[in-house]
Amino acid sequence: MQLKRSLLCTLLGATLACSTLSSLPALAGKTDDTLNVAFSAEPEALDTYKIAGREGLILARHLYDGLLYKDLDTGEFKPALAESWEFTDPLTIELKLRQGVKFHNGASFSADDVLTTLNTVIKPDYGTRYQISVDWIERVEKINDYSVRIHMAKPFAGAVEMLADALPIYPRAYFSENGSAGMAAMPIGTGPYQLMEQTPGVRYVLERFDDHYADSPKGRPSIKRIVARTIPEMNTQYAELMSGSLDWSWRIPPDQAKKLERRVTIVNAPIMRIAYVNFAKAAQDGAYAISDARVRKAIIHAVNREQIAKVFGGDASEVLNSACNPAQFGCEQDVTRYEYDPAQAKALLQDAGLGDGFDMDMTFAAMPRPVAEAVAADLAKVGIRVNLNENQYAAAVQKWREGSVPALFSNWGSYGIGDVVFIDSNFFGGGADDQSADPEVAALLQLADTSNDRAVRKANYSLALKKIADEAYWMPMYNFNINYGLSDDLNFTPHPDEFARWWLASWK
Amino acid sequence: MLRFLLRRLLVALLVALAVSSISFSLAYLSGDPAIAIAGSGGSAQDAELVRQLYGFDRPIFVQYADWIFQALQGNLGTSYYFSMPVSQIIGERIPVTLILGTASFAVALLVALPLGILAALKPNGLLDRIALLIAVSGQAVPSFWLGLILIVIFGVWLNLVPISGADSWSGFILPVVVLSYYALPALMRLMRASMIDVLQANYVRTARSKGLGMPTVILRHALRNAVLPLVSVAAVQLGILLSGSIVIESVFALNGLGRLAWESLLRSDLAVVQGIILILSLVYVMLTTLADLINAWLDPRIREA
After folding, report:
1. CATH class label, A271-481
2. Which of A348, A369, A474, B173 has its CA 20 to 30 A from that of B288?
3. Is some CB atom of chain A closer than 8 A to the CB atom of B50?
């Protein structure tokens, strides 16, 4: 009886031990050629045209290809699904398509796929998330099986940028039959990876697509398998990085990155996103104190942006003077600069009749509270008593568009694209976000946004940005940079557009 | 009993309806959903298109009436974020929440009941002091901190369990420990207090004087009465464990309903928020109704009241 019991105990113990061991997390990647990556936010449904978040877009760029591709290292546009392209007139682009390209479901790529995809996603009822990406296309016409003509609805300087991987091509038959929901349920593209399984928002398994076309500018991926998971808590991601069950993590705050440096590889890289404080000069019929240019200038002089950028943005962050990211085409740097000078700020306030200071509401969204508090603390030193309101992004933008807040502190990513066309017209082009309402600036931006001549564009952006700085419509703060946490076995190069290119990653 | 049951079910339905209408209105307070859906790079034009496509330009009560009408037909709508039916998303996430919630509840109950009874037998004795220490620690230690500490010890240092995810049953070990520890103190302290009261009752003294042993007195006479207040609290605790494990789900990347609700609220995925709130409020109401029924079954005075 005693023997029987001890045998049972031994068996039970062994079973428990074995089951525990068998359920241990798989060690990260190099041994089984699997890149384990983590996001803290859930990726959206994998129909690129419906995605606003970077996580979903990153996965989508591994699954789909665009007609063109931009090499960010050289700034050069390269052939992708289109072998060549040409503006036959300012509103027409002709593209010669590549032959022999296969979709993940085995279908062959041709002009019909381009027609079906683009002619579908430009319709308003499709609900493409960013209208700026498609509203310049009037229609797409088939010339023959491997040539198409894009008729533009309006001149748009960002057209080629958009064709470069931002507008992926879907397989005609599958997309016509299943629509956006079908692409979300089972994304099928021509990309270097194909989706093997997904639990939407939770886990995605991608495998190298062996029939990916030979001359793809993305190249043949080195790593066979990618497993992307959502791990919302950053501390948990750090633990996984340290234990070896994770190879790639991003958006690690600077203070945490410093602590992790001793245990994992930390790579820091600048991105397009910039922080700004926008002033509603024209709102409420100019009733706000900041409607006076001297007050706006006083505010910029009063804030120690250099120190704020170093403390909160990280070592790679720099103070901005122009209303754009210096890495973007057309971002004029020779503009009026406002150095940190509290005495000058006080003098300007005195001059504006606000020598005793004044109260000002400032709403902030998508920015850490300590940064907003640092700005408010600096302003308090010159007598500007800031009432800080932290809002969800949607609520803050809603108030801004209604003109019910004099100052909005937030950030803008320009869709990760290095061109001023994707930032300044939104804030100064006369639309709902433009609370400075300067028709001269709006006209200059309109000229620059719609010209195909880079020199014309550059000259007009320059004039617009100089005027924005002269009038202090904006307080540009600093450019963001991102910390990536990597396994010591991984070669990974970050890019400023915030699109991770795992197809370029490899094991050491 | 049937009348009691019908009355409770009617109240339950009204509560669910009230919760859903209030939550629908509250969801709008976090800002214009069209702007949130258009994303941080969305222009006013994008937001306007979203507003029209998803019907946010209609009066809020019309949107709510439409949602209720669809929900009554079993259609909880489609998530704009995942382009999937809400019922399918909830169906995918609910098993994680159910396993985590019920397992944590079971563990908490299995520890709280005996510990509470033992502590009540000798108030202020050594065991009672130890139980008090456990209870105070459980209340005082934040769940996320305890979770991370356990991750470091058992996941990183000892490599015994997965750090995150619900790919295998062992992924639930640490979250269940943390969540049950969070639920334990209330149950244990209530069990102790209730048992101390009951042990001083005349019928217990009578039972002892008849010569019955302490285990028999406790199990056959005291426990049934002492457990009455615990049933109500336990139902609420189970409701909290099922609906309020957002922190635990986040720390251990379990992707259950709690975190889905939180994330959906932040991104104004209103159909998902409404669907989850409806389901969780129904679960909550059902649990409290169940607790009332159990109490009525245990104590005839309640059902006659």
Report:
1. alpha beta
2. B173
3. yes
pLDDT digits (tens, 9 = 90+) for A272-309: 999 999 999 988 888 899 999 999 999 999 999 999 99
Inter-chain contact A229–B253, Cβ cutoff 8 Å?
yes
- pLDDT band (50, 70, 90) for residue B305: low
Q: Which helix (H) or strand (E) holds A246?
A: none
Which CATH number describes the domain made up of A2-64+191-264+487-507?
A: 3.40.190.10
Q: Where are the domains of chain A?
A: 2-64+191-264+487-507, 68-175, 271-481
Specify the CATH number of the domain B93-266.
1.10.3720.10
Instruction: Name the pairing type of β-strands A137-144 and A82-89.
Output: unpaired
pLDDT digits (tens, 9 = 90+) for A458-501: 999 999 999 999 999 999 999 999 999 999 999 999 998 889 99
Length of chain A, please? 508
Q: How many CB pairs under 8 A join A and B?
A: 170
- Mutation pick from B37, B43, B54, B266 vs chain A, by most beta carbons of A within 10 Å, is B43
Q: Is the pLDDT of residue B209 over 70?
A: yes
Looking at the domain that runs over A68-175, which CATH code has it been given? 3.90.76.10
The structure's pTM equals: 0.84
C-alpha span between A456 and A450 (Å, rounded):
10
Nearest CB neighbour to A394, from listed B35, B167, B259: B35
Of B252, B260, B263, the CB nearest to A236: B252
